């Protein structure tokens, strides 16, 4: 013992082992499969079940998706095409609705000739995003574009004069200048307040008049040219419209011809397949009869069960009431079942008798068709049971069943059941034979159908093309007609411009006069209802007259401003928010919400951490209230209630209200996510920053937030994805988001009843964006992980 | 007697104590809620002094030096640093913090910034030093703490001793007139303690005013010109190191010294 021990202690290796490959089951694909798919019986079971589920789901979806129709003008046409291709009513997707309406799903009712504007805004969005998302790969100066981008995008999408966004941007410049000046002479709080005041003064008081005077300046110089051009257009446009109408007529007749071709092709195919339909008509009643016979057989089985349970006709075993009731109930169910058997058998006989034909007649049906039925079909027909045999055997069964009573013997019942089974098998064999015949007919017809099917596909493609062209013509016509209407109104406005301008001083004088007539205590009132109760009726009348004159003066002033805004606009055609819809709407609301809610969320999170009592409590209350109420309630608040709180007459864009609500909602969530990140930072980080003399905002900006945000990235992106998807909720307050548009599309008789295709398309659009955001978040996490280990 | 902090001869030519007062603490009291942590602290630190503060845990040593740059707020009494009294005036606090460097037990480096960025951050943002100049200063101090080659790494890639030396360099980049050390070696392996102490000794040799909370008695003996013993929120005894270690007066000090030196 001690010897071996001594040996093992003093062991010295003389040759080193060379490296060897692992055994074959422990490397490569085999190892992976073994470890991940078949590592134990639970895993094997899961693998098998998963494979089955995947197969089942794909088998359901793929044929539907890939066997779909892309060219069709309506759901009916989709079905016609599908029917002409597949022997039974095959369930293929009708992608034609997407082909027809995808632009609408993307852009809503935005004017098609201006699609380039949102598209450009969307492309530039990524340019603006690059310095933020991929800071190290793009030049730093690009961040200036990011700053300007929100104004540029707003201008591109909504249009208007080019100086409006510039003037709005100057508000921030004003704030910045005020801050710089004030921070030199006083503390940061005064400087911040000053900046805020400067911006508000600029936007509230200065921007409007500057905008107006720019419009006026440019407009005054253009007046004559514009009137001339409008007059010229008044001559040109009707000619264009007439030409378009002629085009539309020509196109319509081409479409009618193509539809006729299509219908002829459908008729041709139906004729080719006439025997198939004839056989179908034979198969269906027989299949029905088999079902009924099986039902009868089952009912007899139940009778047998009851009888064997009771040992004969149900009789009460004792005189107790419960026993008696049981026996009665059993007897009643036997009676019911006997009635069922009779009904089943009667229906089966009826099916066969009135809806099927004798083999000879079936042969005649097929001979009427054009198929050169091969010899085997004739043999199959011969194998069919004669109709009289079937009806006789069913008739016998009915005789037996009619005689059936509750005290039938067990052997009678068994015999009847066996007879029914035999009859059922007989009919079933007919069904099988007919199915065989049908398959042969389909095979025989396949080659005949190829030509018309190909012709139909070509015809549908042509038809789609023609319809697209017709749509373009109709859109052009609509555009030019609206232009014509607009021009007329504008021309009238321009012609009366001088007159309106001249009338203004007089109106002003009248207003002033009437105002002086009102007792001085009431002069600043804006409504007669504000008068105190002791005011006389003369006072009321005077105030009324003054207010009327004032309103007239204001409305004339406003109409002059509007005319100049139109006349002097250097920029893009203005678009109303109501015209914006579809995926574009979801993107605008989603992106604006995301961009605005992040900074707001950060401020709220910092506020919630603050030691300042009121800042802290206000942030907590804000977060809890916003978070505790469903988004849909806030959206309704935005659309309905907000107007009550705003001064009367303010027209606050619904989309803007929705963006504000969505922003506040997601800011509350972001704040909580970031609070988690802040809480995860060790206090040493705050102390380290403090000990170096960094101010609160410096330490937040440089030390705390970079780390807290990094921790919070998954949560933040998660909230953003949620926000983006929640934009579809705006459908409930009447905005036309993609879901709202899908309803609008279904309201069209062409596409009434189409659901899946639209939802699949909309879902796919959302998925692409949300998946992209999720991937970026993963990329960012990995990158920061690598850098700041 | 425990081992020495360094075996080399310490250059004492610059280690002179001037008459100028760097920190003056008068009757300072502090409570955590109702718990009286610091009681009637009176302490005057002259420029150039190297003071070691020791005492059992919970005696208020760390709290005392954290009050000096107002990481903790005192509730009564006066703290005057470089002639400026600490009050709730944020401007004074930021001014004092930028004059007083501090090293923590857990270094508190910023993990998302490189070593160089850690060192240049405060000079650039607080002192408004141009970036280039700040980087030159930072490299100078990183060389001084002997880790210039790590400048582009992140704190997580460095050992504890290296991180603490970076923390010292980071404080020095602000060119502070006073340095506070809050148990700078307590979280380090024995091997690394020495490299940090070497750096601190070099700093002392240059005449820096230092307040160290530490249990490194070798350092106290060799470098400090005064040792303060605290217990239960009070200064129990202070003396020159030789006297303090060889001839402690109070029973509490004797007990404490016997416990940390006696094994």
UniProtKB/TrEMBL annotation, chain A:
GO molecular function: transmembrane transporter activity
InterPro entries: AA_ABC_transptr_permease_3TM (IPR010065), ArtM/GltK/GlnP/TcyL/YhdX-like (IPR043429), MetI-like (IPR000515), MetI-like_sf (IPR035906)
Topology in the lipid bilayer: Multi-pass membrane protein
Keyword Cell division: no
GO process annotations (BP): amino acid transport
Pfam family for this entry, one: BPD_transp_1
Keyword match Transport: yes
Compartments where located: Cell inner membrane; Cell membrane
Principal localisation: membrane
Domain ABC transmembrane type-1 positions: 583-777
Assigned GO CC terms: ATP-binding cassette (ABC) transporter complex
Keyword terms: Cell membrane, Membrane, Transmembrane, Transmembrane helix, Transport
Classification via Gene3D superfamilies: MetI-like (1.10.3720.10)
Name listed for the protein in its UniProt record: Inner membrane amino-acid ABC transporter permease protein YhdY
Organism of derivation: Pseudooctadecabacter jejudonensis
Gene field: yhdY_1
From TrEMBL, chain B:
Gene3D superfamilies, alphabetized: P-loop containing nucleotide triphosphate hydrolases
Classification via CDD domains: ABC_HisP_GlnQ
Keyword Nucleotide-binding: yes
Keyword Nucleotide-binding belongs to the record: yes
Residues of the ABC transporter domain: 23-257
PROSITE patterns: ABC_TRANSPORTER_1, ABC_TRANSPORTER_2
InterPro entries (alphabetical): AAA+_ATPase, ABC_ATPase_HisP-typ, ABC_transporter-like_ATP-bd, ABC_transporter-like_CS, MetN_ABC_transporter-like, P-loop_NTPase
Keywords recorded for this protein, A-Z: ATP-binding, Nucleotide-binding, Transport
GO MF annotation terms: ABC-type amino acid transporter activity; ATP binding; ATP hydrolysis activity
Alphabetical list of SMART domains matching this protein: AAA
Family, per entry: Belongs to the ABC transporter superfamily.
Protein name, UniProt field: Glutamine transport ATP-binding protein GlnQ
Organism name: Pseudooctadecabacter jejudonensis
Lineage: Bacteria, Pseudomonadati, Pseudomonadota, Alphaproteobacteria, Rhodobacterales
